[in-house]
Structure formats: C-alpha cells, structure tokens
DNA sequence: GGTCCGGCGCAAACCGGTTTGGTAAATCTC
DNA sequence: GAGATTTACCAAACCGGTTTGCGCCGGACC
C-alpha cells in the first residue's frame, strides 16, 4: 500500500513551500490567487487530506468529544448520542461513542483513553465509577458533562427528575378517577426505583390518599418480574384499579398478568410505564408512559460542553434538569 | 487549566532522558531496575499518560477502527457495534462509531474524516454512497469491510442472506400445514424487500405450490403499512391462513388488522416477521421472526478487519454470509 | 529617489511522542 | 591487561502538520 499524500507532496507538485500550502488551505494568511490555484489543483490531483493527528498535535485541539455510555444497546443512549451529535456538528465537532457494555473497569479505561486521545470534552454516564476517580482520570484538563444521577463536582450535570415525572403519571391516573393505585417495580436501592416510588407517594399524599403498603410491590425491572408481581397480587385478592410501573418492561409484564387473569386494560385496570421504549407504542394496548427525553438530554449535554470548550460558559458547574414528558396512549 | 504532563516532565522528575522514559514504559529496550522505578514513580506522581496523537503520528498506527453506520437509533447497528467491539478489544483496538443519521452527504464526510484521523480500518454500511466513491475517499490506504448488501470491490464484505432466511420462514409455515400463505411488505426496489419476496417465492415453488399474485401485497415498512395492507386484503375477501411479512413492524401492523377483524393469531392466521426487533418478543402474541444476527455480523466484521490490518489475511476480498436464524415464538 | 508599507513566500521552530545511532562504563574473553 | 562485547543511557532525527519571524518585492508617498 502506498502511503497517503503529505503536505510536502502537495507543495512539491504545486511548486510552493509547505507553508504556502497550509496558508492557502486554512486562509490564515493571504496567498496569491495563482498560488492558491496551483495548490488546490495539487490537492485534488493527490486527493490530499491533512493528517488530523498532526493537526491535533500542533493545535492542541481535536474538534472531537467523547461520549462514554454504559450500554450502547440500550436505546436511550443512541438517542442521546444523536442529540449530542446534532448539537455539536455545526460547530465542527465530532462525537465518538464508547460503550462499556456494563463493564465497570472499562468505564475508567475509556475515560483515560479518551483523555489520552486529547478529546476536547467528555460526556459520561457512569454506573459504577465514583466521581473522585473520574476527576483523577480526567485530570482537570478536559471539560466534562455528567449525564444521569451521579453527583460529582467535576463538571456540569444533566439529568431527569423521575420523582416529578412519576408523580405526574400518578396524578394523571387520579384525574381519570382511579383511586386504588398500585406501584410495581424496582427493587429497593437498585437503579432509579426509589425516586420513582417517592413520586408515586408524593402524588397520593398530595391528593389526600393513604399509601397502602400491600399495593407497593417491589420486583426487578424485567417483564417476568412485573408479570409475577401482578399475578401474585391478583392471586392474593388485592383490589386495585391502576398500576404505576417503574419501567416499561415491568408494565408490559403487568399487562401480561392482567390479560391472563381476564382483566381488561385500561377499563378494569389502567397501567403506566416509564422510559417510553420503542415497544411501548407497539404493544397492545399501547402503553401510556413517561418519555425520558433522550434526544433533548443529548442536545443539552452537547451545547453545554461546547460552551465550556469555547469558554463561552465559565464559572460554577450547572445542574440542568430535563423533565420527563407523559406520553398518554391507550393503557391509561 | 494547567496542561497535561508530558514525557519531558516525567523525564525531568525521574532524572533521566525522555528516551529512557519511553523505553521504560514500552519495554522496547532494556532499562535498569533503578531507572524504571524512578520513571514509574514520576508517572504516578504526575498522572502521566502519553498523548495518543503524538504516538499515532509517529507510529502511523492508532489502534482505532471506525464504524460508519446509517442510523445509530436503529437497534441493529448498536448490536453490531457491540460485536465489533468484542472482536477487536482483546487486540488492543478501539472502535469509534459514526452515525450519519440518514444523511447521504455525511456518509462521505465521515469516511473522509476518519481516514484523515488515521484510523487503522473501516467498517461501513452505506445506504447511498456508491462504492467507487468510497474507494476514492479511502484512497486504498486503509482496509475496509463492507457491511450489508453494497457490492463494491474495495474490501471484504459481510452480509445476510434474506432470500434464504425468508424461504426458511415460509417452509416453517408449510411444515405447520399452512397452504395459503400471503406475503406482505416492502415496496418494490426499496431496501431488501425484493430478495425477501424471492425467498418466499422459492419456498412456495419448491413445495409445488403456485404463487398467487393477489396474495403478494407490497406496502411500506411501517406498522401502518402492514395494517392497511392486511385490512384491505381482508376487506377484499381474500383467503389466507398465514402471512410472511417483510419486516417486524409490518408484521405487528398485520396482527393489528387481524385482531380488528376478529381473526386469531396464530390459530386462524399465522404471521412471521423479519428483523427480530426488541418489540418482537414484547408484543402479544410474541412474534415468530428472523433474527438477523447483528452481534455475529459485528464479530465477523471485526475479526476480518483485524486480520487485514495485521496482514494475517491477504489476497482477494472475501464475501461472508451470516445466515439469519428463525426465532420461533407464538405468532407462527 | 529614498522610505514606508503591505503582500507574499520561505525557513525554521514547534507540538509530544518513538526510534535510531552513538558512546561511556561495565563486563567478558583470552 | 588489552581488546571485544554488553549494558544503559542520551542526543537527535523523525512523524506531518501549523505558526512565527523574516526577507524580498513592488507600489505609494513625500
């Protein structure tokens, strides 16, 4: 394989110096029309493109940001990535996506690696790496935006407010006349379940209704978990006319169990989910659920990071809440 | 912001030359235990990590490959990306993901940009860019693996065989005693519909059954398309006991129409899909469909590219078929 | 006609690493 | 104990660009 054309090759063919080629292409200093024409012709002939490693090395800017996510196959993150990309593209920036696929060690490895590659900024959603450790990895030389619930004084932060969102879903059920509302999903201490549960509680208390312990059923985030939990509740003869689920998969499982027991959704029991996964609109009945606004979160992260990189934004780190949006469909 | 530590800083603190630091860290030449200890101490103290731009520039290798995909929010591609990543990670390579989000110009821009960033290899799935153009963008200096149906003499190729897969799904229906099988989906000439249709035809003809033109219904790839097509067929009084759909969304739409008409799935009409999207297992009844083996395709792409990069594989470009896998669930 | 100025181009330094060639000291060989 | 070899290190070249400093040239101005 022949190697790629270098700027020296262009200079030789155009009959000018490397400097002049650089200036002709960047416009940093004026160049005669004649020289520019010769340079452009040579560039075309050789199919020349600058080696961005060299450019980045010299300029100390790579026009690249990294987005470190826990799992690229979780549809939330690709949608965030698209938002990020749309927010930074016009400024001439690129995003590179790193998925740790649930591996804790790889979170740190990716961050370190991306800093080594001299990215101009980082967006990170971390499951397991403590904030202080991230600090040491980044070294304070690269601006960081934290996506998600992690609180760490290393950069701006963008996150949702599950509590408020679930409270809104619960109030939606109350407005529709449901009074015996159950909560299903999310083992205590695992993931976002607790804040979602507290949103449910807030809404009930706010409406002057009691929290009935039997109607708060904790289970994992799977379809099977939701199905088993609701089936058990029905078997136990519990009485409820609506279910607030901690996530969509659990809600789909809940509907499975209701269908199996001959209860109509939403007529006998209304069901709400959380996440608004693709399948939410595809199942029957279509799921009323909370859209976590992945794309918007991405654009916010991208804009924020860009402002830090350019210095347009300085001062204390900001904390931006992107509230969820209740998506009313058929199930509630 | 203070700038990051450089190798010269490490050398100074350790009291040795830059050369010795490099050798101590890379092991390319022997270094005394004493010097190594001092270097490692200084590295730790300064939290030093090499600037990969400089390393890549000098070594002319970046240990990075790029994966250019048409749409990161199509779950197929993230799963492929995971496969690629798993295949190359142990060799010390990284993958950077570029999504063109359906924009044709950006396909070319990304490829050009990644070549400019001196990636060691490319995996591309192109919707619109012609092969020869890609050739000129890459310049023949970087190995390429083509994912998908594009035929271009610029690199190895990894793709499915929709025709064979759909034929298998159709034979599955025949084995279950279905005889009047319809095909629904995919406008002619758009995407993979034609090869899928021909698999359906192959299977019927192979079983000695005629192709009934009325039972071949072309529509777009959406849920609405499938629903409208099947609703119209039912209205027209067409008689069929199974439907082979060109994709899962269309199949879900088909089931919508069957449900609305009071036909039971699969008892009255069996339905198969294609893609095995997440929702396929979440809808009711769960969809029997063809898994396009995204992860496996990713690992194959990754391994192939790696072999080209290392020179382990040379000679004519290979064409590897990753056959789909029929995933039998409830709908057929 | 000399001075000043702007336009234009080149040489050289620089970014931060790796790699090569050379050398001084230590060790081996006979 | 002289010569050969090895060990351990360093200086300098190099990767491919950008940027800086300087000189040359021609035209305008006094």
UniProtKB/TrEMBL annotation, chains A, B:
- Pfam families associated with the record: LacI (PF00356), Peripla_BP_3 (PF13377)
Q: Recite the UniProt keywords alphabetically.
A: DNA-binding, Repressor, Transcription, Transcription regulation
Superkingdom, taxonomy of origin: Bacteria
Annotated PROSITE patterns: HTH_LACI_1 (PS00356), HTH_LACI_2 (PS50932)
Alphabetically, the GO molecular function entries are:
DNA-binding transcription factor activity; transcription cis-regulatory region binding
For the HTH lacI-type domain, which residue ranges apply?
A: 5-59
Family matches, as PANTHER family? HTH-TYPE TRANSCRIPTIONAL REPRESSOR PURR-RELATED, LACI-RELATED TRANSCRIPTIONAL REPRESSOR
Protein name, per record: LacI family transcriptional regulator
């Amino acid at each position: 394989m022949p190697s790629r054309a270098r700027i020296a090759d262009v200079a030789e063919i155009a009959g000018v110096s490397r400097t002049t080629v650089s200036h002709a292409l960047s416009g940093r200093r004026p160049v005669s029309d004649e020289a520019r024409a010769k340079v452009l012709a040579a560039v075309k002939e050789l199919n020349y493109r600058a080696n961005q490693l060299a450019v980045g090395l010299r300029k100390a800017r790579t026009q690249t940001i990294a987005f470190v996510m826990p799992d690229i196959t979780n549809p939330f993150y690709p949608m965030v990535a698209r938002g990020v990309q749309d927010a930074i593209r016009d400024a001439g920036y690129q995003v590179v996506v790193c998925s740790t696929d649930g591996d804790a060690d790889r979170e740190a490895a990716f961050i370190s690696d991306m800093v080594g590659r001299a990215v101009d900024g980082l967006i990170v959603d971390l499951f397991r790496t403590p904030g202080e450790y991230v600090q040491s990895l980044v070294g304070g030389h690269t601006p960081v935006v934290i996506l998600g619930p992690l609180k760490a004084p290393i950069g701006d932060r963008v996150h949702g407010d599950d509590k408020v969102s679930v409270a809104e879903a619960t109030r939606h059920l109350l407005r529709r006349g449901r009074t015996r509302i159950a909560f299903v999903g999310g083992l205590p201490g695992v993931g976002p379940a607790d804040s979602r549960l507290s949103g449910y509680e807030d809404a009930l208390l706010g409406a002057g209704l009691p929290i009935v312990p039997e109607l708060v059923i904790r289970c994992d985030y799977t379809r099977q978990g939701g199905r088993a939990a609701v089936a058990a509740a029905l078997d136990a003869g519990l009485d409820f006319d609506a279910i607030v689920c901690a996530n969509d998969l659990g809600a789909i499982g809940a509907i499975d169990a209701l269908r199996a027991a001959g209860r109509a959704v939403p007529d006998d029991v209304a069901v709400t989910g959380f996440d608004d996964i693709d399948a939410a609109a595809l199942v029957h009945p279509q799921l009323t659920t909370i859209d976590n606004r992945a794309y918007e979160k991405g654009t916010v992260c991208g804009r924020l990071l860009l402002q830090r990189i350019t210095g347009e934004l300085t001062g204390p780190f900001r904390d931006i809440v992107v509230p969820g949006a209740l998506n009313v469909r058929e199930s509630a």
